[in-house]
Amino acid sequence: MEYRKLGNTDLELSAITYGAFAIGGNMWGGNEKKDSIASVRASIDNGVTTLDTAPFYGFGLSEEMIGEAIKGYDRSKIQLLTKFGLVWDGSNQGKGEFFFDAEEAGKTIPVYKYASKASVIKEVEDSLKRLQTDYIDLLQIHWPDATTPISETMEALEILLQQGKIRAAGVSNYSVEQVAEARKSLNIASNQIGYSMLNRGVENDLVPYTLENDLGIIVYSPMERGLLTGKYFKDGKLKDNDHRNGYFQQFDLEKVKTFLETITPIAEDKNATLSQLVLRWTSLQPAITVVLAGARNAEQAAANAKAMDINLTAEELAFINTELSKI
């Protein structure tokens, strides 16, 4: 495993980071708790020291399982990354900017983007309890909240830094303009964004900006929620409540299928899977600090970690990029 410094902090994160969205259950068709916990532990055992979660993932369930899974490990050698700013119940229900209606156990749950100072501080206390820890290594706003001044949100993060409840502060899904605004109030460490072979728009603006300003980029959805594994084209049936049924329709699936077939020989030559090749390619792109990879079981988790063992030549990278330009 390779470990990388995050932006302007002293945090050293594993280049492949465990993404805990799917183990929360909501929007992914569910998962067995024992498999989820086993996947976290297998990640750690294979050098993935960094775990990224959020309160919204399973409405607290993902954080709870992370907290349970890391029992017995040296906490100082694990980096816990979580988020705030998506609220769905309690005193904050209905406040902020309506985001969408989530479905959980047959119920419709309205989710709002809300990041007021008081709300952020309360959310962190709840996350610390669920994670069973007394500090968070990196705390990130989950989505921009148009109803709260960015400066107010950053003020809350500054308080939490001073209290020692978080080691570093970052943002997620922020534009260059929003990142610049946040940096007027707080020296944030990173921006977590969606990025993949099929989603490279940030290379035009955010990537140059972060390189110039010593910010880290944490990438989510590098596999485009499983599409780039190639499995969908072999067995395209997803559970009815799986959000990917609609998500995949934004892509030209025939071109994606052809692309994956074209780069498969590279993976085979490396004795690797398509998933591992895609993760490794993503980790080698400019300004990318770490790549989030989800896993539903221990086998997938171990395979994700081994992606960093792949050596790609300049010629192979150029070939992949040429084929990508045809999609």
From TrEMBL:
<keyword id="KW-0560">Oxidoreductase</keyword>
<dbReference type="GO" id="GO:0005829">
    <property type="term" value="C:cytosol"/>
</dbReference>
<feature type="domain" description="NADP-dependent oxidoreductase">
    <location>
        <begin position="16"/>
        <end position="320"/>
    </location>
</feature>
<dbReference type="InterPro" id="IPR020471">
    <property type="entry name" value="AKR"/>
</dbReference>
<protein>
    <submittedName>
        <fullName>Aldo/keto reductase</fullName>
    </submittedName>
</protein>
<dbReference type="InterPro" id="IPR036812">
    <property type="entry name" value="NAD(P)_OxRdtase_dom_sf"/>
</dbReference>
<dbReference type="InterPro" id="IPR023210">
    <property type="entry name" value="NADP_OxRdtase_dom"/>
</dbReference>
<dbReference type="InterPro" id="IPR050523">
    <property type="entry name" value="AKR_Detox_Biosynth"/>
</dbReference>
<dbReference type="GO" id="GO:0016491">
    <property type="term" value="F:oxidoreductase activity"/>
</dbReference>
<dbReference type="Pfam" id="PF00248">
    <property type="entry name" value="Aldo_ket_red"/>
</dbReference>
